[in-house]
Amino acid sequence: MEGGTITVGCSFTLSGSRKLFCKEKCEKGNILIETTDDSAQSGRYSIKYIEGFFLIHTVVYVSITELEKSDSGRYRCSLDRTPSDHLSLNWDFEVVVTEASTFKTKSHVKPISSSAHLPSSPRPLTWSFTSGSTLPLSAFSESTKQPKTSPASSGILLPVVIIVVLAVFLLPVVLLLIYKKRAVHSNDLNRRSSDHNQTQMVLYDDTSPTSKCEG
């Protein structure tokens, strides 16, 4: 509502060097803030740049304080990559300031490239929040938000992982013991068979008839 503060996070798949916060399109006369720094402020308007890495999107936070009804309208966050590649990334959103106790922002992403193809953009987001609220990064970068694991599922998952790890390490040991046991058993059988054959031969020699010579 009037007199409040709004902060919106503009999510980008790429980083940029020049940051702009504009009313409508970023044309002459519409630029509220233009900077190459990570943060800047001009009157009631401010901008803060947080560069992403790996799967985390780059986010540009823009704020308007002491909202007035005349602040209603479309706004744009814009990132310019480098002057040489003429590549700009834009995030458009709409602010509606009312006399009620709440105000709404509707936003959608419009990546634009004049010389290069950009990755697919995050899904459009719509937010409603009370005056003076600030939305966290997770609210703006919905496409990169990681699912949280509940304590219950973590408690179940940990024992399963431990069991699997133990099974992987113990299985070769068990197989080796079984192999050794079978090898020992096989050697015992061979030894007993050999002793039995030798005993039969000795008995045969002891019971063989002796020849006598009569004079």
Shape: rod-shaped
Number of domains: 2
Topology-level CATH name of the largest domain: Immunoglobulin-like
How many helical stretches? 2
Q: What is the H/E string? A: EEEEEEEEEEEHH
From the alpha carbons, calculate the radius of gyration and give it in angstroms: 40 Å
Give the termini separation: 145 Å
Instruction: Give the strand tally.
Output: 11
CATH superfamily of the largest domain: Immunoglobulins
Q: Report the uncertain regions.
A: 106-149
Q: What would the average pLDDT be, to the nearest integer?
A: 72
What's the CATH class label of the largest domain?
Mainly Beta
| CATH structural architecture of the largest domain | Sandwich
Helix percentage: 25-40%
In terms of structural class, how would the helical and strand content be classed?
alpha+beta
The proportion of strand residues reads 25-35%
Biggest β-sheet strands, sense, barrel: 7 strands, antiparallel
